[in-house]
Structure formats: C-alpha cells, structure tokens
Amino acid sequence: MRSLIKWGIDNSPALNVFVIVLISIGAISLIVMPREVFPKFELEILLVSVPFPGATPEEVEKSICQKIEAAVTNVDGIKKVSSVSQENFGYVIIELEGSVTDPKKVLDDVQSQIQQISTFPPRSERPEVKQIVFRAPAISVGLVGPERSGDPSERLNQEIAMRRLVEDVREELLDLPAVPPKSWIRAPFKGLFQPTGPAISSAEIVAAKPYEIAV
Q1: What residues form DSSP beta bridges with 95?
Q2: Do 81 and 94 meet the contact criterion of CB atoms below 8 Å apart?
Q3: Using an 8 Å Cβ cutoff, are 64 and 90 in contact?
Q4: Strand (E) positions, the chain?
Q5: Which of 35, 66, 96, 158 has its CA at a distance of 20 to 30 angstroms from the CA of residue 83?
Q6: pLDDT at 191 (0 to 100)
Q7: 82: helix, coil or strand?
Q8: Alpha helices of 40-176 — where are they, by DSSP H?
Q9: pLDDT in tens, 158-190
C-alpha cells in the first residue's frame, strides 16, 4: 500500500489521467446502460391462443382446445396440458418439465404439431404459440365498441371488425418510434446517443369484451 501511495505521489500526472479515464468510463456507462423499470421473467409455460370470432365457449372447447390438446400431448418435455375456453377465444396452457433446458425447441415442436391440424373451423384465426414472459405492463389500452346487434350474422361481422381494429391499434403502437428520455445527464450528449428501434417492445391483446392491450 505504501509503495502504491508513493508511486501516486511521484507520478501525479499519470494518476490524474487514470482518474479522469475512470470517471469518463463511468459517465459513459451511466448514459448508455440499459435500464428496465419492469424486468421480465421467462417461465417454463407455453401459451397457445386462438381467436374464434362469434363462437361460444362450448364451440371453442370442442373445435379448438380439444384438438390442440390431443395434438401436443405426446410432445417430449411437456408435463401438463390444460385449456380455457371463452367466448371468441381459446387458450391452451402447456407446462414444461423442470428438466427442459431448451424451451424454444419444445415451442417449435408444439407449433409444428398444431400446424398439422387441418380441421379448425373456417372462422377461427391462426393459432399463436409463445412462451409466457411475466412482465408487468406499463400501460393498458382499452377498446370498446358499440352495443352488439341482435342478429347473429351482424354480430359476427361486428366481432370481426372489432378484432381487426384492435390488431391495427396494436400494430400502430409497435411502430411508434423511440423518444430520447429527458435527462440533464444526457443533455450534453444530445444527438450522440439517440435511441434506436421502436418505443414499445411488446404489445399483447390480453382481454376481450372489452378488448385490452397490455403495453
């Protein structure tokens, strides 16, 4: 320790340069370091969601959920399969074995099995398979349409139009450009560290009637 102190006294210019370099590295790291207010956690659960506009829970269960459950039951790495059927939507929850080291492979296998199902109803939309990521939404956007018509065919058209509107809003949210945060620390470096990519990393449709988008 004494030798280090003596070296610092004898070589004060070099020591000053070293301190300035450390401070500069720390300042730059503070500016460019990514920070996340709502950290995300990947769970060992896969979710298959299938929109089915105009369908009752019973129709969703019989035409969507049961077929998916039968198709994915024998996929390696799956511990448990359950489903939730509600009006206009069907969900299949797939819990993975604790020994699974590559959930992405299981997800691809599940997706491959579902793509082989050719008996989905014509009105149902394309199934979406994803790994559950726990992340508290920063914003919830609700969309409510007019009261539904009493005529079944007109009601179905209203559901389809509302679903398309929700998808359009979701796409527009994902296309919003990033905005540089206002910070006195970043002010001197304006134009040097501009954010790239979209402002919103995730926008998911999490509810229907009323439709809700979690951002």
Answers
A1: 45, 80
A2: yes
A3: yes
A4: 41-51, 78-86, 89-96, 128-134, 140-143, 204-207, 211-214
A5: 158
A6: 52
A7: strand
A8: 57-60, 66-72, 103-115, 152-174
A9: 777 877 887 888 788 777 776 655 555 555 555
